[in-house]
Structure formats: C-alpha cells, structure tokens
Amino acid sequence: MSTVQLPFEWAVGGKLPGSGDDYRILACSQGLLSRDDFEEIRTVYTIGTPETLPQVMIAWVGSGDDAHLVLAIQTWSDEEDRRHRKIARTRYFCVPYARIAQSPRPVSYEDLYHALKGCPLPMDGQLVVHVPMLDSGAVAAKVNGMAMNTAALLMTGQHVCVLGGEAVPMVERLRFLDTVAALLPYGMRARLAVSTWASSTAEHKIRLAFTQHVPARTYPITWGQPAEIPAHEEDAYRYLALLGRHDPDAKLVDWLAARTEPLTFGRNGKSRALDLLRGFNPSSVPALMPPPTSARPLAQESLEGLLTECADVLERGGTAEIRDVLGRLDAIVTSRGQLISDDERARYQKIIRDRRLLLPKDGLPEELETLLHEVVRMAGHGVAATPAQPGQTTREVVQPARVSATAIVRHPPPDPVASMKAAYQRGREELEATLRPLQTRELVAMAARRPPDMRVVQIVRDELVRRGGGRDEDPEIAEALREYGYLTDVIGALHPAGDRAQFDVLRDLLRAAYGPELHPKEFEEVFLSSGGRSGVLAAAAVTLFGVGAGEAVKKSVINLVRGSGLDHEIVERVERLLLESESGVSHLTSAEPSGRRWFGGRHRNRRDRPLIPPLTMYFLTIIFVIIALVEFFLLLALKP
C-alpha cells in the first residue's frame, strides 16, 4: 500500500484529574500553532460531550498558505473530575493543507483517523505519520443516492445534519462523511468541517454532522434515505444533475480528488465547483497517478531524467501530469537524500539552470509551484545550500513547511506578505528583521488585503502593539488605521459576529494607536470613522474612553450633524433632543428600552407606562390597610 508522509502538530484537550475546571488544552506540540491557537480551535469546533465515544471531527483552520486540516479524536479517559464525572480526552492533529494537496494522491478522512488514532505523541520535535493514499475504487464503491444527495445539499451553503444514526458504528459514519466529501472537489475540504456526532444545541461551525435533533438553520436528512432538497435550492439541483450524468466510479473520484484548489462554500466557491464538475469528461481525463501496483520502481528512474521530464511537462501544461512527475521527483529525492554526490548535483544544477525550472510558471497552481521549488532546490542544492553553495545535502524531511519558508526568505519574492509569512515560520529574529524596515502604513496595507489572512493580521497587530508602546511612540499608527477603516472589514471577515476575538483585536489596535485611554477628540475620530458600520469598533472605543462615554457619543453625533449641511432648524432640533432630559433621563438613552425584546413590533414609549406597576400598587394598598387596622385596634386597647 502506497503512503504519503505528512507532518502534524498536535494538542491534547481535557481536564486535570480531580479538578473542577472547565475543559481546556492541557498540552501541545511546539510548532507554528500555539496553545492559544489550539484553544481557539477547541472553542470554535466544540461538539459537546456525547455519551458514546470515540467520536471524530475533521475541520479546517487558517487560510491561504496557513490553511490546515484539523482532525480531532474524542475518547473517554480512565479519570474523573471533582464531581466524579468521567473526563473526555480529545487529541487534535493539524496538518498543512498544502502538504496534502501537493501529494501525488491525497488522503481520505478514514485513513487519517486510522493512522493517527493510536500514534504516540512526541514530546520533542514534529509528529510525522505515513498515511495511505486515497483508494478511489474503495470510496467509489460506497457511493449511493444518500451520499450524492447530501453532497448536492452542501451546495446550498447551509449546514446539514444526519438524523437516525445513533446505532450506526462510528467508523461507518466517518466512512459516509468521507464518501460525501469525495463527491466534492477536494479543495472544498479546506473549508469543510464534518463530525461523526455533534450536539444539537452547541454553537459550532460543523457543516455536516450526525445529531439527535435538527439545529436551527440546518437542513436535515435521515440515515438510510435520500436527502430531500428544497425546491428553491437551484445550485443543489444543478450539482446533483451533474453528478447523475456519470457513474460515480473511481475515475470521477480521482478527478475530483485532483481538484485541490481551495474553495469555499460561498457563492464564488459553489459556482467554481459547478464549473469544475461540468468539465469532467471520463474519456479524456487521465488517472490521477499510476496505480500503486503498477508504479515504477525508484531505482529505474534517474534524477536527471525526472528533471528533464519535469521541464517538458511544465512546457506542455496539464496539472495531473505535473503532479505525477513532481510526486515521483519528490519520492526519489527523499529516498536518496544525502547519497547525492557533488558531481551529480553539478549536473542537476545545469539542467535546472538551462531549463529554467526555478523561474515563475504562469498558470501553475500555487501549491504545485511551491512543491516544484522545494524538490528542485533539494535535488540541485540541498536544503541548507543556496545556488552559490552547492554540495550541502541535509534535508529536514519532517519539516517541509519550514523548508519552503527557508527558500522564500533566502530568495525574497516581490510580494512582501509572502516574505513576512515565511520569516514568521523561521522564528522571532527573522521576523523582526523582516518587519523592521517596513513603514507602518505598509504593514496596515498588508493586513487590509483581500482575501483576509488570519496570520498576516496577527503579525501586523503584534507589530503595531510593539511600535505603539506609548502614546507618542508612533503617530503614524492612528493615521494608517484611520485610512484603512481601522481594519474593521477584514477583522469582521476573519471573526464571526459575536466573537470576542473581534473586539479584542480592535481594542489592541486602538491602544497601539492612541495609548491606554482615548481623549475626547480621539474618541470622536474613531467613533465617527465607523459610520455606524462597526458596533464592535464603537464598543472598543467606549471601553477605552471610560466614564463619560455617553456624553462623548452625544457630542460626536452633534458635531457630525453640524457638518452634514442640513437645515439650521433641523440641526437645532437634533441638538435639543440629544441634550435635553426628561425626568433626569435623556432621550438618547430612553429611546430604546433596555433588555431583550421577546416579541416583535414597535417599542412602547416609556411615558405610556404607569410610574408604579399595577401589581405593586395593589400590594402597597393592602399593606397600608393592614397598618391602619393594627393602629386602630391598638388605640382601642389603650383607651381607658
């Protein structure tokens, strides 16, 4: 069985025995993902604690170069907490999506689970696991009407839950999730979260899960029955029709597995998925790679021949061919490693130079270009060497992401974002050296890029906080943030509505720009810049202003109205309404009653309500009557 070698970062979540603490991350690997990163993953993808374990959840985190697949395995431990309740342990494994996408053949959810479920966690270094490559024939054999309809239902963009699967073994449920995912372009797994079980009440981002009840805004399907697709979901019907044109055989599964370009479940991603499936032609699509049984032995292939073949294939184009030759090239470079002599490297360097293998390739997917540069540099120069220093052959096979970062930093690309992210992977000193010459406005502009990038925003935020250590440390921060709307759109896109992290990031940026507290003019500058679009930014500004923020808000609104060009009479009326009070309560604060609105419709005006509620008045009257009667009888008793 052919396997692919994948590097994982890991974490363990649970409770300490005998403690009354909540669940949290107890330990994690020392890599790119910190304990806080894993804690965020645990919080966002919490599935609750089911009665039956184990359960498996597969999800995603990050975007762009930082996109990772997450696999979580939840099991019972032999320990109890303070209340003598069994403690569940969850092991989290994160692998760069690009490493899977760059493999000659990707991997399935089920194979990831079996490869990771019993593996020991290294205290030092990276966890490297050999995972079987996708067996498209085995996956295709499990496709049925329920799986096809479920895959189509995911094209609605809504969450989907599977009911009636309580008695189905966990591995069979995982296999079903795998089959559904195999009927989508593989790149959608970079934004797909699935689980063999999830609480119906827990807030999570699981797109497809087995549950006992139907959560809000979720389409239900019943185990063993074809999913019912609502009549108005046209994209789902189109996708199902396209799937129905072909037998769901291994060739279709292989072809979809080769579509590794990351796709979302938003409008653009769904449109792209439909276009891809329309382009499937069984007669003209080659297999993803030669089947493992007929694979050519490495000994029969030479690096010189593979480098030449690679150059020829790149000139012809064709993603499947390029992926195949790069997979074979990577395998032979890995197998030979330090056995490559200096004379051989000199010959390889000549081919690389003459065929221009390291020059940018138009139309080549980013993940394949990254793999191309990595394996070609390893063949010609070794990992630690530059083109001017051939002969070094050390290769860090267990840290492929850092290999790529090393190449980028030593040969800086025109894009400063790529250079900055690569420097981040190499450590604090390299990152500081990369950030030092950048102007504040450049940093903010990089964070404001579309599509939003979580890692870039994190790096920029930390650097701005460092530069804005005091109120007057870097006056450009406030100006740059104001120019880019305080990054509210980007931060809002990265963190869902109601997420505390959105508030924390904006507050950190304001502190970096203005110091630990806002002055009235600064408050007005921030408050008015939001234009009512970001309540989170307004909340962050209010907390930094402190006591008196209400009056500051009123003054800011008055100044905004004064500069609006409205008729003088209207301006005066607005000022009067904002500044006047009725019974000590300003109109600004009494316009909307506080508390939750349980019913729709218009709010009643406070003046329509009696000063004392009727029920309270009733009880007060009874008390006064009782007191009067007691006094009356006391007077009678004391009368001579």
Can you characterise this structure?
The chain is built from 27 helices and 12 strands. The protein has 640 residues and is α+β, with helices and mostly antiparallel strands. The strands form 2 sheets. Strands 1, 2, 3, 4, 5, 6, 7, 8, 9 and 10 form a 10-stranded mixed sheet that branches. A two-stranded antiparallel ribbon has the order 11-12. The longest helix has 25 residues, at 614-638. The termini are far apart. The relative contact order is 0.06. Residues 287-300, 383-414 and 581-611 have low confidence and may be disordered.
Alpha carbon gap, first and last residue: 113 Å
Task: Give the DSSP E fraction (strand runs of 2 or more residues).
Answer: 5-15%
- Residue-averaged pLDDT: 77
Sheet of most strands: 10 strands, mixed
**What are the segments in which pLDDT stays under 50 over at least 5 consecutive residues?**
287-300, 383-414, 581-611
Q: What's the tally of helices?
A: 27
Q: Quick summary of this structure?
A:
This protein is an alpha+beta fold and 640 residues long. 47% of the residues lie in helices and 11% in strands.
Which tags fit this structure?
single chain, alpha+beta, 3 domains, ten-stranded mixed sheet, two-stranded antiparallel sheet
Topology:
Layout (H helix, E strand, L loop, with lengths): L2 E12 L9 E5 L6 H10 L10 E7 L6 E13 L5 E11 H5 L7 H8 L10 E6 L3 H5 L4 H10 L4 E5 L6 H13 L11 E2 L12 E3 L7 E5 L11 H11 L5 H8 L9 H12 L24 H14 L2 H18 L5 H13 L11 H15 L19 H11 L5 H11 L1 H8 L4 H8 L6 H14 L8 H8 L4 H7 L5 H15 L5 H10 L5 H11 L3 H14 L5 H12 L1 E2 L2 E2 H4 L23 H25 L2
Parallel strand pairs: 7-9, 7-10, 8-9
Antiparallel strand pairs: 1-2, 1-5, 1-6, 3-4, 3-8, 4-5, 11-12
